[in-house]
Description:
Elements: H1 2-15, H2 19-34, H3 41-57, H4 61-72, H5 82-98, H6 102-110, H7 119-131, H8 136-147, H9 152-160, H10 181-192, H11 196-209, H12 214-226, H13 230-243, H14 251-260, H15 264-277, H16 282-294, H17 298-311, H18 316-328, H19 332-345, H20 349-362, H21 365-378, H22 383-393, H23 400-413, H24 418-430, H25 434-444, H26 451-463, H27 467-480, H28 485-498, H29 511-527
Helix pairs in contact: 1-2, 1-3, 2-3, 3-4, 4-5, 5-6, 6-7, 7-8, 8-9, 10-11, 11-12, 12-13, 13-14, 14-15, 14-16, 15-16, 16-17, 16-18, 17-18, 18-19, 18-20, 19-20, 20-21, 21-22, 22-23, 22-24, 23-24, 24-25, 25-26, 26-27, 26-28, 26-29, 27-28
Amino acid sequence: xxxxxxxxxxxxxxxxxxxxxxxxxxxxxxxxxxxxxxxxxxxxxxxxxxxxxxxxxxxxxxxxxxxxxxxxxxxxxxxxxxxxxxxxxxxxxxxxxxxxxxxxxxxxxxxxxxxxxxxxxxxxxxxxxxxxxxxxxxxxxxxxxxxxxxxxxxxxxxxxxxxxxxxxxxxxxxxxxxxxxxxxxxxxxxxxxxxxxxxxxxxxxxxxxxxxxxxxxxxxxxxxxxxxxxxxxxxxxxxxxxxxxxxxxxxxxxxxxxxxxxxxxxxxxxxxxxxxxxxxxxxxxxxxxxxxxxxxxxxxxxxxxxxxxxxxxxxxxxxxxxxxxxxxxxxxxxxxxxxxxxxxxxxxxxxxxxxxxxxxxxxxxxxxxxxxxxxxxxxxxxxxxxxxxxxxxxxxxxxxxxxxxxxxxxxxxxxxxxxxxxxxxxxxxxxxxxxxxxxxxxxxxxxxxxxxxxxxxxxxxxxxxxxxxxxxxxxxxxxxxxxxxxxxxxxxxxxxxxxxxxxxxxxxxxxxxxxxxxxxxxxxxxxxxxxx
Length: 532
């Protein structure tokens, strides 16, 4: 009973991030009990685990490894059950993995009988074997596929081997599933060429052959998301998660979709589930970084996304999210660097958009135009791609007419293209065509409701001096997203303009100051044209 109370107290300290206090308590209370033969072996093992967890919180993996090794080498080994010894082997392998001693990690997991190995054990063994270029990697990944037919990591490895000629590999762990690696690879290559429609068709053919493949469904969802078909993409992502709760592939992108819907609770829930599944994968950390970004806690978001980059230096989504964080922090140059890094790892419609928006924010319109033009050439019938070109051209006075035509054309292709709506509204404001800007936003707002759209509409209404209506729309924006700083500032400004004597009966705001506030509003609208 005392042992359990002690363990719970240390856990509470760790969960509260009071790691120093937790370690001090563990050193004082747990360490002596490890050597006390009067304490039951199972309790001593529990004390060992919580003590090592404290050491891990301080990144002191060597001390943890030494403690476990000394403990298991003592006479207590004969008093532990086979299951307990297997769990100790897993604990040691986890420490070896943190120390990047992949060969020793693999050797440790081999001590667990084949029939007792979990799916997670096999996945870790396969990953270690691949990292040390062991011949066993192929067999281990094949075994992983039998346990988890949707294991994308196994597909990637097996398909990358020189001996694989792209033929069809067939697995029948339940007498029904089989997977066409060649078709899967074809669809992936289409995605990398931004041929999302063709990729969707290929994934649909794969899905008809094996309907319960969560990986195929998730990839299909990503294609729809890249084409701005967010509702269909969300349904497919949710279906993939329902089929395989341990699915990790593309879940960082799914978190981005949920962030777009302003559902912070869903983003947090997804990130939490992903981290519970595997803390050594970057997707969970990427999702949590998005959550903190939604809460306006950019420093915390940066720290978390850097963790994702450390775990997976070649994970494009981790750099893309850092770009979004830097944009939110007003560091457009740093954002451009991160978006470019993500683009270099794996280009997509999202990375193109990120690079273009960051360059526009920096005032580097020539660079932005080059990427926008390339995107339009790769996706010639895509409204978002046309909108990017139009948005860049809208910053050049001599190209306003051409920009307007492109943006109108984008909206004819897709009335839900928010980039085109925002850029065209900004162009109208720049040309002092406020009635046209108001008509545009009123037309497209009902099917594109978001805090950003309500804020843009309120901005234009403020410029048109329709202050009560502007206040209503700022309020609508804040109801959708209470952390929208632009809506907060806009609402406060409108409130001051509507009630100039509210703060002090003795002070009145001169007309010149009100004009200056209105001029500043125009500047803010132009500066914030590109949504984060």
